[in-house]
Amino acid sequence: MENETEGKEFERREEAPTSSSTLPHEHEHSLKTLLSWSAPGRPFKARSKQFYMTALLIAFFIEVILFLFSQYMLMFVVASLVFVGFAFAYVPPKNFHYRISTEGLMIEDHFYIWHELYDFYFTKRQGVEVLNIRTKSIFPGILTISLGDVTKEHVKDVLLRYLPFREYIKPTFLERSGDWLSRNFPLERPQ
Q: Among 100, 90, 104, which Cα is nearest to 37's?
């Protein structure tokens, strides 16, 4: 008799609906790509020989001054920064794939959900329109995204559904200093 009772209970369990497709949240949140494009990973401008020679000359004078004051570690730091600057100026960036979806923003293989992002604004770097998205966490702080052949207005229309837009962001002291230096002491002649 026990076997018959167990068999009937087993039959009843089989009849109960166990379909996971009826979950309420599944129909409400469907992942949909809103905008997708490929663009260089950072703004890039090919530099002339004059740029490299001027930068080397300035670095050489700084190195001489540091040598006179016996600041050997700072000499190493300056040489390292010049090397990194030349590497970024000489090697063009690879193309990244960007995707804006209903759930967040994907840059190559890293996904940021909307709750991790704060707001967005546009800037111009080296003559290229750049989308800047501030994050709530300290690192990375700001996502800098080249637009490529996607228009600024199209990206703005898509992002406004999820993030607030800032027309103006006050530049930091370092940004203002860098702009002042590049305006007053250019490393190459403007073309």
A: 100
pTM of the model: 0.74
Question: Is residue 177, in this structure, part of any structural domain at all?
Answer: no
What's the chain's Rg over C-alpha atoms? Answer: 27
Per-residue pLDDT of the chain (191 residues; tens, 9 = 90+): 445 544 444 444 444 444 444 444 444 568 899 999 999 999 998 999 999 999 999 999 999 999 999 999 999 999 999 999 999 999 999 999 999 999 999 999 999 999 999 999 999 988 889 999 999 999 989 999 999 899 999 999 999 999 999 999 999 999 999 989 988 988 888 76
Task: Find tokens 């390292």 and name the residue.
Answer: 80
Q: Cite the DSSP H helix spans in the chain.
A: 2-15, 24-28, 49-68, 72-90, 152-159, 173-184
> What domain count does the chain have?
1
In a domain, 179, yes or no: no
Sign of CA dihedral 149, 154, 158, 164: positive
Range of the domain at 143: 33-167
- 170: tokens are 């006050």
Q: What is the CATH number of the domain that holds 41?
A: 2.30.29
Residue 128 lies in a domain: yes
